[in-house]
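fwd from M.: "can u put these together and see what the complex looks like"

so here's what she sent:
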Amino acid sequence: MASVASHRWVGNRVLMTLLVAAVASVGLLPFASLSPNRLASGQSVMLWQALASWQLAALALIGMALLIAALAKPMDPRASQWLALAATLPLLALDFYGLGDYAHRALVDASPAARVSQGATFWILLLVSALIAIDALQRLRLGLIQRALYGALALAVIGICFSGELLAPLSIMREFANQEENFVDQLIRHLLLVGGALLPALLIGLPLGLLANRRARLRNGLFSVLNVFQTLPSIAVFGLLIAPLSALGRAAPWLGELGVSGIGVAPAIIALVLYSLLPIVRNTYSGLAGVSSGALEAARGMGMTPRQILWQVEIPLALPVILSGLRIVTVQAIGLVVVAALIGAGGFGAFIFQGLGQYAIDLVLLGAIPTIVLAVIADFVLQILVSLSRPSGTR
Amino acid sequence: MIELQGLTKTYAGTNVVDDVSLTLETGEFGVLIGPSGCGKSTTLKMINRLVPLSGGRIILNGDDVTDLPAEQLRRRIGYAIQSTGLFPHWSVAQNIATVPQLLKWPKSRIDDRVDELMAMFHLDPAEFRHKYPHQLSGGQAQRVGVARALAADPEVLLMDEPFGAVDPLTREVLQAELKRVHQQTGKTIVFVTHDMDEALQLATRIALLNGGRLVQYDRPIEMMVKPADDFVREFIGQADLGLKLLSRRWVHQYQRPPSLEHHATLPGLDHCWQLDDAGRPVALEGARLDDDHGVTPVKPEWTATPEMSLKEALSRMVWYRVMVLPVIDDAGKLIGEIGMQGIMGIQAEAGSEVS
């Protein structure tokens, strides 16, 4: 009976659940923490202690709006979804602004070593606004352009928060200020490692996928081998490569001069290529296998050469599936490069392992958050490419 | 002209096509028919060499097909299949233009040809040019498929069960259109089907295959009245043989001058047409099944045209319960009549084939 009743009152159960989670988090978990120095553990600060009264009032208003959007009445579903979507932007802004503003006020009288860090509630509010936005965007069935527009707005809100001095007193931003030059270096290194792995993976994987499509007898063996690579734990592969690569680097000094050794970039890229092959080969194969046999028969029957069939029919029709494979591999590689820092390849993983060693959580986050952001951006960009590559009529 | 000489295809030691020889003259509509697995599709696909020959020869307008590069040969031959095989990522216009593109025709010539073909298949270029295959109905997609096969004005058109996957109503319309296009273009067509009614409707020559062997190669009427053996007789079906014959006979072959005054010759058949000033039939006096002397207003649904098959004329008589139909010309003028007697008078002998 309870569920029947809730059906009558609640129009959007996802939104209601998120709202309850956010309220519970505000009541139970800290919004920020204040610690005397970089390494000491801090003292919890709850949301209502951290925010100024006008900010609390604004937050209450946003909460009310979301509650109304979650209820079945008085608004119709579509208007509710628009309201929820619109409410996520001020929620996002308030989450950042509240934290930065609190840090400014809390540190006025404190020692220079004192630090303010974000707490669980800050993250949960961030996550909840993202989930509300995703839910609303899906229910509204908006097109790619409208979704991108919303994403740009949300990014603009976050960008404005980061642009001024607002967030500067936060511990993580001070870590960033300490590491600023290093941060750009590691970003470039991270991207170079990803690109350096994807390019050879594509150069090897695409022809292998085509081969798997053309030679049925090779297919099973090929996929078995690639599957084995996929099941090996990444750290184990790095470990396994140390011995042969350092031997190679010693045996052929010119290779050693090029940077081939047991640790560093060479084993990282080799391992990443091995991990990337299976998704690329499998998606290339299944993309080609998915081309309708009727289209292929007609293409042959009308006198297209095998090369024309490949470039004009098979590849355009397989492209969305191939690009989906590239999307998987790119996101996966951005994550795996973090682990490659263990063998000295660099990238954002360097911050993470350094932070773990020093028990400096904010330094860990300085490595982890940009990695996540990179992965999300890469995922979004490739998603757009996938939809653009769909045959025009079926997009 | 296509000549198959001792054509043979062997898979794993079995002859799926076994020593098939036949000649199809230019402009003929040849239908390959037979039960599943009889080798009809394989025979068709050997003509454009999608299936390599194991033995025998195929001569296309004097050229042995195996002497030509396969791609060059195929661009001389139109090819339409059941699944249409339209390219889903190309618009209707691009699909139709496939072979002219391969032959590197100038763009203006391609555009003109695409419009011409779309008009021939009643597809409004303004509406359909830029549509994609998934936006078409089954019948429209099949029309585009046939238009694409005809695009480069091929010497021969090969069709592999092109109407096998569309609903019966659409199939009838497409058959009629194909028949019209065949008459308009005079193309030599080789058409594979397993549907005898479709074969009788379209063919000028039928080749019946069974187990890879050619059982009989004849004109449709001869197939019906002089089956080579029991297999042919069975495959054609005896139950509605009379109706099948009627489907191959035309009103103009059996019509007679209209009766404009009463003759009390035969009971039940005494009738007379009332005409208006323009010579169009207005009503029929008598010759109704249930009422010898009633006056029946003429409706368009139960008139006949000279091109109509006797089967359709009979169907209209039965449905509207009249013993005779007015035969009218394009302007609606009464030019003759076709009666039950005319239909019953068909001769079950060959040779009167016209179309």
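replying to her w this: The radius of gyration of chain B is 24 Å.
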